[in-house]
Structures are given as structure tokens and as C-alpha cells.
Amino acid sequence: MTGIILSGCNGKMGKAVTRSVAETDGCEIVGGIDIFAESLSGYPVFSSPSNVSKEITEKANVIIDFSNPAALAGLLEYAVRNSIPAVISTTGLNDAQINLIKDAAEKIPVFFSANMSLGVNLVCELAKKAASILGDSFDIEIIEMHHNQKIDAPSGTALMIADSIKEELDDDVKYEYDRHSKREKRTKKEIGIHAVRGGTITGEHQVIFAGHDEIISISHSARSKELFATGAISAAKFICGKPAGLYKMSDMI
Length: 253
Known about the structure:
Order of helices and strands: EHEEHEHEHEHEHEEEEHEH
Low-confidence stretches: none
Shape: elongated
Mean pLDDT: 94
Helix content: 25-40%
């Protein structure tokens, strides 16, 4: 039985993971962490990692994190101190926080992905392949759409796609987030990234390669949060028993 500590358990994604774990053989949530320390799903919930009881720690094989960037440092410290692998699914992280993940991965196995969907990761690979073939003869734009409650923009997934494309292009390619203040033509050395927030959109991502008289589009549409929850659970099973290191979706698939 894989014992999971779920960070951010009372949030929307945390609730989705809770539902998915209940339908997954060989897994159970032994404890949750949430700033609102209320037990809503039958397992004990603690307000911070430092408050998690020793009894829960002894039952835990892995941590799944769908919380807030502000909680990352304390969660990684807890994971390293107790030698518990961690799946980090929280988005909106800055460079310093990503470096914390890399530091932790030197001591424990850490699975880190801005998106836990297999389909999105396939989009990254397809976009990367397209960029390698089309080069700078096509302009590249990324459009992402999410619900009106999402606080970070652009999405971590949009940046993940852009990073995949940039690997095939020159290092001097820049991300262009806002053109309203510019009065100049688009350059070839940029990837446009645009965020839309509205309604209850779960997650839509489109990569546009615009060339002379032709357009190539690669897109992904998420219809529920359950697909991200399923991916996180699969990642949790994957890293249990792995040596210390930084793992990503391509390692699992």
C-alpha cells in the first residue's frame, strides 16, 4: 500500500486527488496538509508540515503537492528530513523555488512537472519536433486559457511548452508576454505567450506555428481536473523506491 501525504488537500486539485486515490487500488491518503486544517475526507489534516504527527510520517511513502508556492520550502524541508519522495505539481514557482526543488532532489527523489497530463507532455514533444523542422521560418505563438480563479499567468504549462520549443532554437530567443506598449514589427527571435482567464475553463493550450500562407496548430484541451490527479498519482507510484534525483514526465512515459 502506497501511503500518500497530500499537500493542499482542501483545494480544488487536492479534492480531485482525494477522489482519484479512493478509486485507485494500492493507494491511500494517510494525511493531508492545508492552511485550512479541516478534515473533509476522513483523513487527518494539519496546517503545516511541521505539525504532521510522527505516526502519519511513519505511514507515508510519498508526498503529492498541489498547494501554494509559499508552502514549498517548508514542505521540501519536511520531505528531506524524513526521506520521503515528493511529487511537486504546484505551479507559479519562481527561479529560487525551482532551485530549492533541485537542491532537494540531490537528497531525495523529486518528481517535478508543471503539468501532470500525458497529453500535455505529448504536446511539448510535438511542438519541440515542429520547431526543429520549421526553424525560424515560422512565427511561434502560445495561447493558454484557464478559469477565472487561477492566480498565476502565464500558466506553468505554457512556459513548459515554450521551454521545450526553445531547446530547439537559438538561446537568444525571448518570450514576449505583452505587445500593447510596443510599436514595432514582430521579430523572429521571440515566442509570444498569451493568457486568457474566464469562467470555469479547466485548461486549454494551443501552439501556433504561423508561416507564409500556412498555419500549423497543436492544441490540448483538459475537460476535468481528474486527469491531472491521475497523473500525479502515477508519478507518486513511479518515484517510490527510486534513488535521489529530479524526475519528470518523460522519465515515466
